[in-house]
UniProtKB/TrEMBL annotation:
It is a multi-pass membrane protein. The keyword Protein transport does not apply. The chain crosses the membrane at residues 12-33, 39-63, 90-112, 137-158, 170-189, 209-230. This is Aquaporin Z. It comes from the Bacteria. NCBIfam families: MIP, PRK05420.1. InterPro entries: Aquaporin-like (IPR023271), Aquaporin_transptr (IPR034294), MIP (IPR000425), MIP_CS (IPR022357). GO terms for molecular function: water channel activity. PANTHER family: AQUAPORIN TRANSPORTER, MIP17260P.
Length: 259
């Protein structure tokens, strides 16, 4: 199997797992249900945050050595802007992530619909603002928190996976960052920082969710670009700057060869 096909499979599977596990925890395990003793078994926002963080950590350990373990178009875009991912590979990564996310949401929908009274329009782990925000936060607050937190997330990815990072610990640092991000922003938007994670459940949740999904595509992508520019201008190591120059030289040579 070619390396390119392996990368597609890795991004598909990793994003599938992220959506199924993270959104699955939100959909299946946050509804309080009394047991024999009447105790509540819902995991709450902390449990959902941990589910997303653990999903991205385990996915990165499982598939990161193949594709880099992005599972997020905002991360892939940020890495391309930073010179870490060739631009020609970006569309393949994004499509693989979107298809994996939709597949994860579809399986989750199949499971969740087995419960009597299930109504995907009531949430289905979708992101939103105003009346679709968990705590009623408006558009500006949602836009701001998603841009800022995505930028932080991508900065952590760039820092921990760079030449001076500790490769064995990077998935753990990235996962813990995602946990903190969820703890901050679940009340505001239900936490996106990932266009694929937002688009997939919205497809199953009706027109109101789809009507707001634009923000959770635009804001994370903007945050990813901001992070890449900040990293390149302020934080990149000399090795990384050299890599960027080599990639630019290779691109110029390819263009010259076609002329």
């Amino acid at each position: 199997m070619s390396r390119e096909v392996q990368k597609v499979a890795a991004e598909f599977l990793g994003t599938f797992w992220l959506v199924f596990a993270g959104c699955g925890a939100a959909v299946l395990a946050t509804t309080a249900a009394p047991g024999d003793t009447g105790a509540q078994v819902a995991i709450g926002w902390l449990g959902v945050a941990l589910a997303f963080g653990l999903a991205v950590t385990t996915g990165a350990y499982a598939f990161g050595h193949i594709s880099g373990g992005h599972f997020n178009p905002a991360i892939s875009l940020g890495l391309s802007v930073a010179g870490r991912l060739p631009w020609r590979e970006l569309p393949v990564y994004v499509v693989s992530q979107l298809v994996g996310a939709v597949a994860g949401a579809a399986v989750l929908y199949g499971v969740a619909s087995g419960r009597a009274g299930f109504d995907p329009t009531g949430g289905f782990a979708t992101n939103g603002y105003a009346d679709r925000s968990p705590e009623g936060y408006g558009l500006v607050a949602a836009l701001l928190v998603e841009v800022v937190l995505t930028a932080v997330f991508v900065l952590v990815v760039l820092g921990t996976t760079g030449p001076k990072g500790a490769p064995g610990l990077a998935p753990l640092a990235i996962g813990l960052t995602l946990v903190v991000i969820h703890l901050i922003s679940i009340p505001v938007t239900n936490t996106s920082v990932n266009p694929a994670r937002s688009i997939a459940p919205a497809l199953f949740a009706g027109p109101e969710a789809l009507g707001q999904v634009w923000l959770f595509v635009v804001a994370p992508l903007v945050g990813g670009v901001i992070a890449a520019l900040v990293h390149k201008s302020l934080l990149a190591t000399s090795e990384e700057r050299g890599d960027v120059r080599v990639e630019r030289t290779a691109q110029r040579e390819r263009v010259a060869g076609r002329a």
